[in-house]
Fold this protein.
Amino acid sequence: MTSLAEQPAAAAGGAVAGASGPDIARLVMWCQDRPGIVASVASFLHRNGANIVQSDQYSSDPTGGRFFLRVEFHLPAAAARLAALERAFATEVAAGLGAQFRLRDNAVRSRAALFVSRYDHCLLDLLWRERRGELPIQTVQVVSNHENLRTDVASFGVPYEYIPVTRDTKAEAERRELELLRGRVDLIVLARYMQVLSSDFLARCGVPIINIHHSFLPAFAGRRPYERAKERGVKLIGATAHYATEDLDEGPIIEQDAVRVSHRDSVAELTRRGADIERTVLSRAVTWHCQDRVLLDGGIAVVF
Amino acid sequence: MTSLAEQPAAAAGGAVAGASGPDIARLVMWCQDRPGIVASVASFLHRNGANIVQSDQYSSDPTGGRFFLRVEFHLPAAAARLAALERAFATEVAAGLGAQFRLRDNAVRSRAALFVSRYDHCLLDLLWRERRGELPIQTVQVVSNHENLRTDVASFGVPYEYIPVTRDTKAEAERRELELLRGRVDLIVLARYMQVLSSDFLARCGVPIINIHHSFLPAFAGRRPYERAKERGVKLIGATAHYATEDLDEGPIIEQDAVRVSHRDSVAELTRRGADIERTVLSRAVTWHCQDRVLLDGGIAVVF
Amino acid sequence: MTSLAEQPAAAAGGAVAGASGPDIARLVMWCQDRPGIVASVASFLHRNGANIVQSDQYSSDPTGGRFFLRVEFHLPAAAARLAALERAFATEVAAGLGAQFRLRDNAVRSRAALFVSRYDHCLLDLLWRERRGELPIQTVQVVSNHENLRTDVASFGVPYEYIPVTRDTKAEAERRELELLRGRVDLIVLARYMQVLSSDFLARCGVPIINIHHSFLPAFAGRRPYERAKERGVKLIGATAHYATEDLDEGPIIEQDAVRVSHRDSVAELTRRGADIERTVLSRAVTWHCQDRVLLDGGIAVVF
Amino acid sequence: MTSLAEQPAAAAGGAVAGASGPDIARLVMWCQDRPGIVASVASFLHRNGANIVQSDQYSSDPTGGRFFLRVEFHLPAAAARLAALERAFATEVAAGLGAQFRLRDNAVRSRAALFVSRYDHCLLDLLWRERRGELPIQTVQVVSNHENLRTDVASFGVPYEYIPVTRDTKAEAERRELELLRGRVDLIVLARYMQVLSSDFLARCGVPIINIHHSFLPAFAGRRPYERAKERGVKLIGATAHYATEDLDEGPIIEQDAVRVSHRDSVAELTRRGADIERTVLSRAVTWHCQDRVLLDGGIAVVF
């Protein structure tokens, strides 16, 4: 089975009402650090008529580390010329540096599937931001193991697939999910989806998966985290958005934030404040991912 | 051996340049919740000529919970009358409610010993705030297992005792510490003191101990926490001030805070930002403790 | 013309899914400060079988200031007994103190009208929080001088009235608004309503009006504030929720917050971040107002 | 009269215990934006043996805006080679682009004079951070119009000059200040210096001046700002660090931050919290300035 993203992202089409304007594209690239990388990339872009408008780079170590680059550039008729530019960059620059790279038109949105269970706060915030043009995604499918959010999702004009999951039906449910999404998505967002995805699913889906979960100081693994945070009298509660990996809740961290709470807050109030911080952190993480601002240095997410 | 605080706190004397003005005192009280507690306390204060200027209360559960109260009141000639008021309150109010309580003149500062190892940031911030009149403590002694901060402390006019600690001398060192502080302090602050105090010390010292330590999302127990936070790519680092108990780093949490960091921050920079947040959190925790704003509901610190 | 709120709030009915549970009511009271107020109130509640579960008080000055009190209490069969308790409190306590007060069942929600122009972020956040049971209001009417949000509002089941406003029709539009809302609301929320209400409207509507507007350091009065913030290179943008008064944008401040921005943020991005902080600040302010947590000390909003 | 900074900064010598390590230098450059700038700079550095380890750039507008660049690079034997590199860069790159630039060894600290009146919080925080090696400055002189901080400053080993200022002696005082500092400093920091510097002083001193002042939402110009913030019931207080210009308090903003306050905070407490935020904001601004992270785009401070 091939990746869910087998069809080109561009097929999803549609311009984002973003700040970037037309004819803006981006290059992200990573390789072993060595002198001359920036000169090589910048010269390539210059002689192809591209003007760099924003650039971020990071080296994990000045001597012998890994190098990461993200460049936004203005290129007249970018949409028509990007495929040729990609081929040229591969042979003229990337091959010599042993670099991996992605080259994308900023106007093309990522196609996303949103997985959700019962809680609506993360899901609705993503759909609402997409509709406002704040989020460079196009949600092509919502998948839920519950029925309760069907009407809400319908008002955004997005298909809703109810796929219940029990211990016995989990393998079959995951098979249906993969079938449903095959070739249609570039990204899966777990917007408070309370089922653990199998390592088989992770291996076969072929697209990045972003998850959101609560975070506390100190951390509480396991069940009923807000009850335990209450019992411990924590003064901060937070949320962490990360890529899903086989080590549950241990994938690279994209974004975190926290808010103050007090002994007066009931478990219900802690949960409510947690929901506010979860939706904020997840929408930032999804935005940055879809803008190719997140590059992986082993287990560290470099966020430009 | 009796508590370090065997002599009355008032003996340390000295007015705090605080916001409260003269003739302000405070009552803190805790007991099983039941109807009429506030009425009983308020009536007592009223008929004794005290005018309540601030009041906080908390019930862990409206039916059958624990009740906590903190009241600040204006009482003409408070200093002279507080001892009699305390005796009257014990018999007229507290006995009937099965309540424990403390009654203190706001003008009297807590006597503190500050324990420190090599890092100066928490220690100097506390001493500086005390000198400015921001912190209602009187530091009577600094204890360190290193010599390096002696000159800094001298400039604040505070005695500095060097008590080195090795595995073999630890028991003797703790004996010296208890001897040095006996009857002189109301509070011990571990201002980045890197030695674990024995349960024997905790049991014998007889005064509260406030500790500060780094906190991360997720948490990293053990050694080299900033290195591990770097390896994990965390986006927030924090600090927690808590009462020291036998479960190391597990005592009731008084205050927490966190700041944003990024992949660009080196371990040195993470440590520096950690120092900033540690000194801020510790000074808040010490202030609130010394204002009797922190009451314990089992393992939860109720902070008024 | 009488106040918009001429019918009793209780008529709007409906329990809030709040943290407070059943049989919880609240008393808010304000008067000249003097000794014995708390004792008087607490004794009254005690002898009427009410158990105080939360209490906040504030005195603008211990000697001769204004006194403010908010008490939540548990009272068996609160709904049935509150009217009689109110009459008793008026004669037995408030009259003697020269105090004003409100006594309300926590289960009764405030009836609100939301005014909006073109921007949806504040409006949708309030409606969504109301639907989740987070916000103790019942929105009975949306009023807009534009048509564009009609469909969104319909999905929440709330009536939407389009009342266009031009310079020539403003007086007539305000007359229609007052007519539409008469006797139906306890609160008007200006959720990014870009029309200035006349002082005549303010005088006649008879209910509090909460407004939200952007805030900057330094402040930029007048038009195009985000453009001007961009030109000035501000590093923080904020929002302020306040009661509307005749001095435009100068009413008592209920809540404020701010977020960091940088030179990289375009005017569009500043506006977007401003929208996020506006909706957060407004929903807090409305929640606190509807919980009777906001009392006025002249031009200062005391927020318990 | 020539600039205070007439002697080269390098004369102040001394390595900073920074994160950067040895042989790290930085280039900052600004010019009209046009295609190929990054390629030109990167190629120059590459052929001179420098390896870029961090790079930030900003264009005020992709078409026709101003371009700003800051690059940190590793260069073997940087200290010995920087002067030659500077000459080569001027002719080979900057001249053709019409660019202005600075090229500096990261190991060289800026020489600073700190001006202060009576409040110690900003001054002591800067001196303490310098001593810890957190701040890349070398304070060569403290100037004050009061005597009260002399002892504190002496403990850091920094000369303290008392220059009183009255309306009649102001011109003479400024003349003494300029004389005292001539050729000795790269930067003046107004660390709560309550005298307004004349435009003549600003014109003649020839080095940047960083100022800190309180900020509120809304803003309160003029005297007694904390009293007025109290009267207005603000919920946030902040601080702004900016370059001093002839328009008092209107120079380019380098950094801002804010903290929450409430109606309970007295004017004294507001002032205390204001002091905390002022020292934090000022130390960040000074650090960034001394790392050449702050470039001016007209009235906007671009902070890399």
Observations:
- The two ends of chain C are 33 Å apart (CA to CA).
- The CA atoms of residues 15 and 107 of chain C lie 5 Å apart.
- The interface with chain B takes residues 21, 24, 33-39, 41-43, 45-46, 49-59, 62-63, 74 of chain C (CB under 8 Å).
- Residues 110-303 of chain C form a domain with the Rossmann fold fold (CATH 3.40.50.170).
